[in-house]
C-alpha cells in the first residue's frame, strides 16, 4: 500500500496501461476511492483524446523532419541555428554567471564567516550529498525519458 496516495505520474501510467501496473498500485487502487476516481478520470481523458481526429498539417511534416535531420547530420548543428544540442549560448552563460556572482559578492563576508569554521570533512560530506542528489535526479529524469520513449513507440 502506498501512503497516503499514488502520485499523478503513477495514476497516469496506470490509465495508459493498467496491465503494466504492479501489485502495489493495483492494491492501492482497490482500497482508495480517491485514487481510483482520479485514475478513471485520466482513462476517460485518454479515451476522449483517442477519439479526436488526427491533426492535418498544411505541409509535409515528414519532409520537414527529414530536412532537419539531414542538416543536423551534415553540419552537427540544428537547422534552427540555436547552436549545438546540450550547449548554452554565450549570452545565457553571462546571465547565469551574473546571477551567481552578484549575490556571492554581496554576501561574501557572511558566507566566509559561516563556512570558515567548517572542517574539510564537513565540506566533503556536503559536496558528496549534493553530488548524490544530482545523480539521483539525473537517473530519475533518464528513467522518465525511457518511459516516454516507450509510450511513444508503442
What topology does this entry show?
Elements: H1 8-16, H2 23-31, H3 33-51, H4 61-75, H5 90-106, H6 108-116, H7 120-153
Short description:
The chain has helices at residues 8-16, 23-31, 33-51, 61-75, 90-106, 108-116, 120-153.
Polypeptide structure, described:
- The protein has 154 residues and is mainly α.
- The protein folds into three domains: 8-51, no CATH class; 88-117; 119-154.
- It contains seven helices and no strands.
- Helix 2 (23-31) crosses helix 3.
- It is flat and about 60 Å long.
- It starts with 7 loop residues before the first helix and ends with a helix.
Relevant terms:
mainly alpha; flat; 7 helices; 154 residues; single chain; 3 domains
- Give the total of beta strands: 0
**Number of helices, where a helix is a run of at least 4 consecutive DSSP H or I residues:** 7
Oligomeric state, counting identical vs distinct chains: single chain
Distance between the ends: 29 Å
Total domain modules: 3
